[in-house]
Design brief:
Elements: H1 2-5, H2 10-38, H3 47-66
Length: 71
Amino acid sequence: IPFGAAGVHYNGLRRWVLRLFVAGLVLFSGSLYLLVITNASKLGMVTPLGGVAWIIGWLMLIPLSLRDVDE
């Protein structure tokens, strides 16, 4: 697993996954809600950043799901 070889601890990786999921939720969903409520079209530029945070979070979750249960 490349994250283990790079010296990244799984607890730290879990924290980053959680941070990215929360950031994605706030940026993606929050910007869409505010866009509808306020009709401020500039908020649409923030939405893809939330999507990218979610995608990166899911990709970082892969090594956690592949690791040994005994660890």
